[in-house]
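Reposting from the mailing list since nobody answered there.

I have sequence plus structure tokens for a pair of proteins and want to know whether others read the tokens the same way I do. The first protein:
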Amino acid sequence: MEAELYMKEALKQAQTAFELGEIPVGAVITQNGKIISTAYNKRETGKNALFHAETEAIYKACEALGGWRLWNCELYVTLEPCPMCAGAIVNARIPKVYFGAYDIKNGACGSYINLLDTEHNFRPEVYGGIMEEECSILIKNFFKKLRNS
């Protein structure tokens, strides 16, 4: 399955975040089957609330493609996007979003709220639970390690 291939790359990005002491979320943006950008959470190391994996990946993809509309791209992210990232997805016009673990406390793609299925002029397709167990385990291990230290 193609989605799993890209989610594995997103998991590699999340592992990098884990090793840096960041909440382990990774993201990948593709276009026509080619990886355009990769990113991971950098809020702690970058000391910036905006440095989520999704926003970083969107920023890099816009730079790589020379425009803000990513309408022929797909986003793969290890954790369900938050409200800020859901807004960035809509604004970047990303038509397909694939995520791994559901986020029942902050998820904005159906778990807590669904900002991607509203009356906007743009509504992406969303597919959740891609490699959910692997994505969830990494996050659980991170918080377990954090509690034990």
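The second protein, same order (residues first, tokens after):
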Amino acid sequence: MSLGLDEKWMRRALELAGRAGERARPNPRVGAILVKGGRIVGAGYHRRAGLPHAEIEAIQKAGVKAKGATLVVTLEPCSTHGRTPPCTDRIVESGIRRVIYGSGDVDRRNAGRASRILQRAGIRVRRGVLEEECDQVNEDYRHWTRKKKPWVVLKLGMTLDGYLAVPGRRWVTGRQAREAVQRLRAGCDAVLVGAETVRRDNPRLTVRGTFRHSAECGNVGGVQPWRVVVTRSGKLPKGANLFRDRYQDRTLVYRNKKWGQLLRDLYQRGVSRLLVEGGAKVAEGLVKAGEVNEVVIYFAPISVGKRGEGLARIREWSGWEWRETVTSCAGQDLCLRGKLGGAK
């Protein structure tokens, strides 16, 4: 295949990788296709941790047609035994003649090993096709693996003038935005708030409704995310829902912990994605510390004005270096989503 065709097939593999969404966590999103005689004879993506990797699914679908074919995969094939056997073994056994991959694996157990194993078996290997795009699809996985701390998503619901609450209203945003937040929660391993949010709102921070068991959100089995509370004083209401409901053993309290220390501890607990939901001081503190990777803001089409005296508000926007921003609608509310530059 020429360079142009390599890129064409890799774009197809990237489309497949995108289907995985949050389901693959904590594994990376990977897509793979098998090409023979200018046609795709097998295709697959990694659907969920513990299930076959993308390469294996593509090989299974191709059957005997895999022999002599070219494998195009977005990530360097794994070469160690984890929940599933090494993909390199199956690639060699299937008779594939050429392998093209985009990203190199950042997992030290696999990094750089696939090329050596495959080439020793007489398989030609080409690396780095659409590497930047393949890296991008797993930016959160790469961060989690290399930095040893979760990918941090900051969610805010606010008025047009930056207030996180509205006098006389229970909710700032509408129903569709609140349902979208349930999706966000279901796609994360932990949800974090500040002590003042616990005192004022007495939240449950659970994944509710249809998203709790949704394969689309990666929350298969209905495991509730950790509920994380940060506090300086340690003074929290003992009767709060977080400490009395049936998920109380999923609640963690951190007192006077530096952000880096807290995130490393959550990493040790298996948290790869952390959703931060409140409040203003927590949000600004995390951004200032350079620990926010992604931001999701739902803007309600209202302003508080002079009625906002004493209410929580995002006042300081300097240092929020937005990139890759996307806007959409959630009912009557506007959603702004993007990544922050400068994150550690």
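Reply #1 (J.P.):
I read it the same way you do. Residues 212-221 have pLDDT under 50 and may be disordered.
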